[in-house]
Design a protein that fits this description.
Layout: E1 6-12, H1 30-38, E2 40-41, E3 45-46, H2 52-61, H3 65-68, H4 100-106, E4 110-114, E5 130-131, E6 147-151, H5 186-215, E7 222-228, H6 242-245, E8 249-252, E9 261-262, E10 267-268, H7 272-279, E11 305-309, E12 319-323, E13 327-332, H8 350-360, E14 378-382, H9 400-416, H10 425-432, E15 445-449, E16 463-465, E17 469-474, E18 481-485, E19 495-496, E20 501-503, E21 507-514, E22 524-530
Parallel strand pairs: 1-6, 1-7, 2-9, 3-10, 4-5, 4-6, 16-22
Antiparallel strand pairs: 2-8, 7-8, 11-12, 12-13, 13-14, 15-17, 17-20, 18-19, 18-21, 21-22
């Protein structure tokens, strides 16, 4: 039996750590809490962006969105009121960038995703054995095969806080602690109650998955990782404030992580993929910008994490941020913009509606006015003593050293990671697609290798070949990955191509190729008759 560890990832959408194990007295999260009791909490875990698709593109590639062109939030559809935007497009990272799951597949893991992707690019078919609403480790054909299974319940999404959503009546509205910048109204408290309700519901789903692990006898050899993509609320979601990028990180790894522990280690969701590779003995490519915080290839602890904000929906912006364990620095490249630019979807949020209403009525106090004031060029916060980031220290001479240190760190990070925020989005898209058309990956070519044909000629049609016979696959598109099957029908099992295919009998080989950002090639099909 293969004893390499399995991996179970369960991500909650739009969730700060409003959990019992993090000290929240209102939360009802028994299943996250039991993983914490059996594992470790990372209270200093942060996302690279306060919004879904850029944040998830970082998790699946181990690359900063600003380095691979996935930093603008919504690229897949055209804005009706802003047809001038260069959307829709699929981001096209450098050709060597792969989904982290491909490395696991190449190492023999069964990889399933259930089922959200939202990577700013179409998920390549080579990324997963199964990417569907039925994706599950239980579907792997060999029950001894190690697995990397990802589940993404969506009930805790920001939209679950809208007024048409119910909340459990066991939540006492008066017991909910509001951040000081929110107006204290019933409508705001009810929206927070919906948030707690949704977290409770996805926690129950998490518990069902944990029970299934136990039923299958897999709990002792599975690394269970819980995380979220970013925070849920106004001034949180879409922002590099802690309410936008501070996320839960709870990991159970039997025999390797002491139960019931907490670490102050500073980690980024960018680090999730390389950390799992390190834990499973898979080499981490040098281009990957995330760093392992567990396993044999654990890197030195981070001094800073970094985050960004760019165009979100219809409105352009550019903010770069760095955070140490104590201090947060934010640099506004467009300080002339108001904090609250037009983002229609955000304006549907009941809390945002209350904020607008009371602002118009002149009923907000100084803290509640924080998003209606002019933007400074820089912001600096002592997150230890000012967790809600309301007292900007950027102009305080007593904090000049911290301001310089974090500002320099942002400069170095942007330079080292080739920050694409300096490039207009339309120019970036033209670099990928000069004629405005998304290319199609070059179709696979099949090359038979036999005693009489040593692989110097491609096979362009079915034919007869001597034995022993192997078939190489090739695509002319730089960075293409290839997938193949020797089965027929729509439900065939497709394999990631990593080495020549050995044929032991007459075989029909079907193959496709795909590069991230390109359309997938047409299927190529050839029958190899062995003589």
């Amino acid at each position: 039996m293969d004893k390499r560890p399995n991996i179970l990832w369960v991500s909650f959408e739009d969730t700060n750590p409003f959990y019992g194990c993090y000290g929240d007295k209102v939360a009802r999260t028994p299943n996250v809490d039991r993983i914490a009791a059996d594992g470790c909490i990372w209270p200093n875990a942060f996302a690279v962006a306060g919004v879904c698709a850029p944040a998830r593109s970082a998790v699946i590639t181990g690359m900063y969105p600003t380095s691979i062109g996935t930093h603008h939030m919504r690229t897949s559809h055209r804005e009706e009121v802003a047809p001038e935007l260069p959307t829709p497009y699929s981001a096209c990272p450098p050709p060597y960038v792969k989904c982290i799951s491909e490395y696991f597949r190449a190492a023999g893991y069964y990889c399933s995703n259930n089922s959200k992707t939202d990577y700013q690019f179409d998920p390549p078919s080579t990324a997963w054995d199964d990417c569907s609403t039925n994706g599950h480790w239980r579907n792997r054909p060999d029950k001894d095969q190690p697995f990397f299974a990802v589940f993404n319940p969506t009930q805790s999404h920001e939209s679950g806080m809208w007024e048409d959503k119910p909340y459990h009546d066991h939540y006492d509205l008066d017991a909910i602690e509001l951040p000081p910048y929110f107006p204290d109204t019933k409508k705001v408290r009810e929206s927070m109650a919906r948030m707690y309700t949704n977290i409770e519901d996805v926690d129950r789903y998490f518990g069902e998955l944990l029970d299934q692990l136990e039923e299958d006898g897999l709990a002792d050899n599975t690394i269970v990782v819980h995380w979220s993509d970013h925070g849920p609320m106004p001034r949180g979601k879409r922002w590099p404030y802690d309410s936008g990028i501070h996320v839960p990180m709870v990991i159970k790894w039997p025999g390797h992580i002491d139960p019931g522990t907490t670490t102050d280690q500073l980690v980024s969701t960018l680090d999730l993929g390389p950390t799992m590779m390190s834990a499973c003995g898979i080499d981490i490519p040098h281009y990957v910008q995330g760093q392992a915080f567990l396993g044999d290839k654990r890197a030195e602890d981070r001094e800073f994490i970094f985050a960004a904000r760019d165009r979100y929906d219809s409105s352009y912006d550019m903010i770069r941020a760095a955070r140490s364990k104590r201090f947060k620095y934010m640099r506004h490249y467009m300080p002339m913009n108001p904090y609250l630019q037009w983002i229609p979807y955000r304006n549907r949020h009941p809390i945002m509606q209350e904020w607008w209403r009371l602002y118009q009525e002149g009923e907000l106090n100084d803290d509640q006015m924080c998003m209606f004031k002019p933007r400074p060029i820089e912001e600096l916060y002592d997150c230890e003593n000012d967790p809600h980031e309301l007292n900007n220290l950027a102009k305080d001479p007593a904090y000049a050293e911290q301001l310089h240190s974090l500002s320099a760190a942002v400069d170095q990070w942007m330079d080292e990671t080739n920050d694409m925020g300096h490039i207009p989005e339309s120019d970036m898209v033209r670099q990928w697609y000069p004629n405005g058309e998304r290319p199609t990956t070059a179709a696979p070519v099949m090359i038979p290798i036999t005693p009489k044909s040593p692989g110097n000629e491609a096979s362009l049609e079915s034919g007869s070949y001597d034995t022993p016979c192997m078939v190489q696959l090739y695509s002319a598109t730089q960075g293409a990955s290839l997938t193949y099957t020797t089965e027929s029908g729509d439900d065939a099992t497709w394999h990631l191509y990593t080495e020549p295919i050995t044929l032991s009998a007459d075989t029909t080989v079907r193959a496709r190729s795909v590069r991230i950002g390109y359309f997938e090639s047409d299927e190529v099909k050839q029958t190899f008759t062995l003589e």
